[in-house]
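Board notes (copied after class):
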Amino acid sequence: MKVSVAERSSIELGDNDWRALSSDRYFWQLVTSKILQVDTTSNGRFRIRGTCYVGRALVGGRILEIKEKFPGALAALARIGSVDRLRVERAPSSIAEDLRVRTH
């Protein structure tokens, strides 16, 4: 199952997704690292907000994805050299050790 939110945007989580994510220590490490934010809605539901990061992690048995607000924007900026401080941040995840970063 996938939970997907765009960078600098938010989504309200269903009860099952909230229980799965919030029970995983990696989720709270993402929050503490300010890769992801959590708040509550006026009706008492939980909402997650993507920050300036994009990427994926396996958290609470869910694929948690923070996707680009505009698909392809990061690659386009990198191609034209507009991204002067592009860096890869290692986010905690139960699959983090299996990931490989590819650069061109």
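Comment from the instructor: The chain has one domain: 2-98. Residues 15-22 form the longest helix (8 residues).
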